[in-house]
Amino acid sequence: MFVQNQLKSWIASIRSKTALPLRIELWNGQHVDLSSEAPRVTIRLPTVASARYLLNPSLANLGSAYVEGNIEVKGTAQDMISICNALARNTLKPEGKLARIVRSFTHDKSKDAEAIRYHYDVSNAFYEQFLDPGLVYSCAYFEQGDETLAQAQVKKIDHILKKIQLQPGQTLLDIGCGWGALVMRAAQQYGARCVGVTLSENQYALARERVAAAGLAHLIDIRLQDYRDVTGQFDRITSVGMFEHVGLKHLPNYFSIINKLLAPDGMAMNHGITSTDPDNGETPYGGGEFIEKYVFPHGELAHIGNVLKTMQQGGLEVLDVENLRRHYARTCALWTENFEAHAEQIRPLAGERRFRIWHVYLAGCAYAFEQDLISLYQIVCVKAGRRSSTLPWSRNYMYAQENTQETRPAPVLTP
User: Fold this and answer.
1) Model's pTM, two decimal places?
2) Any residues with CB less than 8 A from the CB of 195 and at least 6 apart, and which?
3) Nearest alpha carbon to residue 310 among 247, 265, 372, 264
4) Interhelix angle 325-341/352-370, nearest 10 degrees
5) What is the domain partition of the chain in residue ranges?
6) Quick check: helix, strand or coil at residue 61?
7) How far, rounded to the nearest angstrom, does the alpha carbon of residue 169 sit from its chain's CA centroid?
8) 2-92 maps to which CATH number?
9) Catalytic positions, written as ranges
């Protein structure tokens, strides 16, 4: 009876603050609607004990309860995330543990490899269900805003290769190469001699297969290798969706390594997720805690200001910075749509628990990017102190060809 009274009081408090299209189904068969609008989300509490998750609805608590099966939630992932954020915002104080806290993790080659395998080695077939045919697992680039996901991913790669002014026959290192889409495009379009490194065994195996099938093995070397073990120098270096795994304390060293691997007249580009908190804090209301526990172990996001500072500490000069936050919100929304459309195929590949993790993770990322809780920046840089006469005077070279090209579907990289 005590818990029921607490829950009744909590529901009255939420109703007084906002109207949510949410139905709460109780363990005794009764239900309560939190607005007169038809419910878009239903949260079922199977036992009296499960009510505690609603009484303290941090994103970590609700997310964990859903993943572990302690509550049941019905609705689209987009609606689930929106309503859970509203519950947290109208119940909890955004301070203390629920604030944008900064946590630091130990990063070494063994721990980093373990974290990468946890996230990326689910199975290649799992990722094929919601990514584009080229298996590009990073922010797409919607030049006009109406591109398909496949078109926008190819445009993203082309945008990067133009930004770094890749020239025919140059050498290119791709740190965190995924399933090889960028190096394949660089080899196909520019004849670049590429090295791609990944710590994911699944990515490594499939990327090598794709390279061989495309007849590009003479131009592309895919390696199962830590970026800290790469030697030599490269005309161009790209890092797409990888530096989030480096760790805040290690960013100066990470950029120092890129500097060391970069040829004297080379150019590099870092594409990665950043915190929008000036103090490098994670997303609020326990969202960051959920991500660290279930999705990206030991992941750390730096504010763009800290990224630029550590680049300079690593001996690199920043030439160009572009914010693609809105592009990633759209990318994650499309991934979420694909995920839900292929739910029946994904469940046996992932298992019910991991299915639930990814169901809320993808939609949660779309929400976080849309609400400016996290962001995405592409940063072009060169070795500090390079003669200015060798650098472009404007950004025209990045866009001239894109803006004058014929309006036709972008080519799609096939697995």
Assistant:
1) 0.91
2) 171, 172, 173, 174, 183, 220, 221, 223, 230, 234
3) 247
4) 150
5) 2-92, 111-404
6) helix
7) 31
8) 3.30.1050.10
9) 365
